[in-house]
Amino acid sequence: MRRFVLSLIALVFTAILSISYAEEPRPFGLILGKTTKEEAIEILQKEGGRITKSGYKIVKGDIVNKDVEGVEFKGLPVDNLIKATLWFYKGVLYEVEYQFPLSMSKEEFDVVYKKLQAKYGKPVIYVRPYLADGRAVWRFKDVEVELLAPWASWSMYLTYTHIPLFNKVKISDRQVLEEETRKPQKGF
């Protein structure tokens, strides 16, 4: 009996590990937390994307974090995609955000949700976009995928985020803001 219980515990533990360590999403083959800015730009340009904007992350007002850079692409082969923005922390990809159009009926949410569910399975969070923000979230080892359809918006967002680097970005943003606000201001 004891051997059976131990085998059952091992089986359950293995199943939990395989679920929590499922292969993380790789949009266009990009590896969040590893792909460099140069590699990402090359990959997306080969996919037909063209850079339309780039720059440092605005922390507040005219304060920017020079460790965080965004690059906006248009023309990527994703149905109904308005634009894709890639975010890099110290030159490493930590977030990919797709922006799609969104109608009042929120039908677009269901279309994209069904594609994501077919690829990633059941989300850990699901809120239907009916009198509320539509939201679905999938979690992997270090990556979170979120589909968000704000109730009062004409745009819907699909975001792939590398959580450890995202947390470093938040710390970096706070440090930049603290440093900038400590500087003496002329005229005071």
Structural account:
There is one protein chain. This protein is 34% helix and 34% strand. The chain is an alpha+beta fold. It has one domain (24-182). Strand 6 (134-139) and strand 7 (143-149) form a beta hairpin. The longest helix has 20 residues, at 163-182.
Overall pLDDT confidence: 89
- Spatially, the strands of the biggest sheet line up as 1-2-3-4-8-7-6-5
Total individual domains: 1
Shape: globular
Our measurement of the CA-to-CA distance between the termini, rounded to an integer number of angstroms, reads 78 Å
Per-chain topology:
Elements: H1 2-20, H2 37-46, E1 50-60, E2 63-74, E3 83-89, E4 92-101, H3 107-120, E5 125-127, E6 134-139, E7 143-149, E8 155-162, H4 163-182
Antiparallel strand pairs: 1-2, 2-3, 3-4, 4-8, 5-6, 6-7, 7-8
Concise synopsis of the structure shown:
The chain is of the alpha+beta class. It is 34% helix and 34% strand. It has one domain (24-182).
Highlighted features:
34% strand, 4 helices, eight-stranded antiparallel sheet, 188 residues, 34% helix, alpha+beta, globular
